[in-house]
Amino acid sequence: MKKPLVAVVFGSRSTEHDISILTAIGSVIKPLELAKSYDVLPVYIAKDGRWYAHQRLSDITLYQSGKLDAFLAKLRPVAVRLGKGLTLVRQSGFGKKEMNIDVVFPTTHGTHGEDGELMAICEMAGVPYVGCDVESSVIAMDKVLAKQVAAAAGIPTATYVAFSKQAYEGAPDDWLKQAASLNFPVFVKPAHLGSSIGITRVARKKDLANAIEVALHYDTKALVEEAVQNLVEVTLPIMGNDEPRAALLEQPLLKSEDFFDFETKYMQGGKKGKGGAKSGKQGAQGYSIIPADLPAKMYETAEQTGLAVYRALGCSGMARVDMLIDTKTERVYFNEVNPLPGSLYAHNWAKAGVSNVQLVIQLIQLAQARWEARQKVTTAFTSSYLQQF
Prior knowledge:
Layout: E1 5-11, H1 17-35, E2 39-45, E3 51-53, H2 60-64, H3 68-75, E4 79-83, E5 85-92, E6 95-101, E7 103-106, H4 117-125, H5 134-140, H6 143-152, E8 160-164, H7 165-170, H8 172-180, E9 186-190, E10 200-202, H9 208-218, E11 221-226, E12 231-240, E13 245-246, E14 251-252, H10 262-267, E15 288-289, H11 296-312, E16 317-326, E17 331-338, H12 346-351, H13 356-374
Parallel strand pairs: 1-2, 1-7
Antiparallel strand pairs: 2-3, 4-5, 5-6, 8-11, 9-10, 9-11, 12-13, 12-16, 14-15, 16-17
Helix pairs in contact: 1-13
């Protein structure tokens, strides 16, 4: 019996391009190969937007060697054909090779992928794909929109001010005045980016304009939000469609004045200054406690808040919900949702009893179940409308 062909799509025109490569190869392709239930096709989207498909693209040393561009120049990009499914077509001197994809496993972090664009291609093609759908991906990847949806569902969020780049450039003094009215310290964030790129903690009002300039350098929308006092930050990986289930609540080891920027997360193993890790209870990058060290009632409240956010945003497949807890008031605030967690947060699921291999298999099964359910919905309508003209 022919195995389903799973296209693991990664890279793309994103500031998180390199993180995407690591997620694809280490957390998806290798476990899928170990599962031996699928044929796995690595599909790399280069920084210029061209698509490539080849087994050699699953070799991490190719990206570390400095020879990637030379390899791609010889390989030739594939054409993406939509119709009854998704087909990748590669032309060569020996003719044309067509690869009919059965399931797409997106691992494209950030813009032009995780933000719903790749999911929309899959929807147009009518092919099952892993993770959140178009609508929930769009909402989750916009920190402002996600907060608005969560607030409408009665879920608390920190007080914030948000604006587009165009609006800010049109009236910078007005927006600075609004942002300066918040209680400091504040965090200034690009609205659509992950991996802590472009985020600045601002303790003094005089530094606010520069932080906003940094955020709007990377994005077309920014938000300025008050820091939660007496802070414990937690994150919750969740998996499922109509009946989501949570992994373990995870607690980064940091002080309230610190936060994990890109350098801390990915370049120094989570060990940077006084926000670094303690030995013993460590997560994937050595800077978290799993499960979070919280009183039972507070743990349960945070877990239920995470699940409520997942449902409110319409997430399916998987996501990770980040929350902020004021330990004095015991109030849990929704922070943001990551619809495609780096490394799939496999380290957390492993502690919850789900191995890497089981995780990717279950995510594919959830994708197929959602696709099958949607096939029962009528999307075409026959009428005599055009005959009257």
